Amino acid sequence: MKNFNNVTVSVFAKPEEDAMKLKEGLLALVPLNLEEEGLVLEDKTATGFNQRTLHIYSLTLMKDRHVNAFMDFLLGKLNNQQKHQLVNEAESRLDAELVFFIRIDKDLWADRVFQLTDSGNCYHLKLSVAAFPRKREVALDIATKVFKPH
User: Fold this and answer.
1) Mean of the pLDDT values across residues 16-32?
2) Global pTM value
3) How many beta carbons lie within 10 A of that of residue 13, not counting itself?
4) What is the mean pLDDT of the chain?
5) Of 59, 97, 121, 122, which has the fewest Cβ atoms less than 10 A away?
6) In the prediction, which pLDDT does 4 show?
7) Residue-level pLDDT at 3
8) What DSSP designation does 68 have?
9) CA-to-CA distance for 54 and 46, rounded, in angstroms?
10) How does DSSP classify residue 29?
11) 103 near 123, Cβ under 8 Å?
12) How many angstroms separate the Cα of 48 from the Cα of each of 53, 54, 85, 98, 107?
């Protein structure tokens, strides 16, 4: 059964941060060979506070096999406590468009330590829930089942 339509992984790189390291971290969150799979890592720039230039790296997975590979990787990284947290916070993590949000600590992931965070200093995971009928209750039920601890 299809649980998610697509997944977007993104990270903001501030001028004082090592953009290449953050880009590598984003790629490490996606268990796919981008070149072989025809995926493109987007690199956009934006002007932040005090006219500072930020790089925004993002990758969107649309194909079911890409989304499934990512979800298998994600579920393998989450421990039971983290899954429990996602289930308990499901209501606040799901927006009106039925996108489920997860944040991964940017600094800890540099050392490949997978830690959820509420901080803005993070990798952003946006999971578009494949709810049918397209209702919030259905999406919450799907997210709860997917992240339910074993």
Assistant:
1) 96
2) 0.95
3) 22
4) 96
5) 97
6) 98
7) 97
8) H
9) 5
10) T
11) yes
12) 6, 6, 31, 28, 20
How long a stretch of residues is the chain? 150
The Cα 111–Cα 134 span in angstroms is 38
- For residue 50, pLDDT over 90 is answered with no
Is residue 24 within 8 A of residue 41, CB to CB? The reply is: no
Q: Which tens digit of pLDDT belongs to each residue from 59-91? A: 999 999 999 999 999 999 999 999 999 999 999
What H or E segment, with its residue span, contains residue 51?
A: none
Q: How far apart are CA 47 and CA 55, in angstroms?
A: 9
The two tokens of residue 139 are 């999406």
Peptide bond into 133 cis (omega under 30): yes
Evaluate whether 69 touches 77 at the Cβ level (below 8 Å). Answer: no
Measured CA to CA, the distance from residue 31 to residue 70 in angstroms comes to: 6
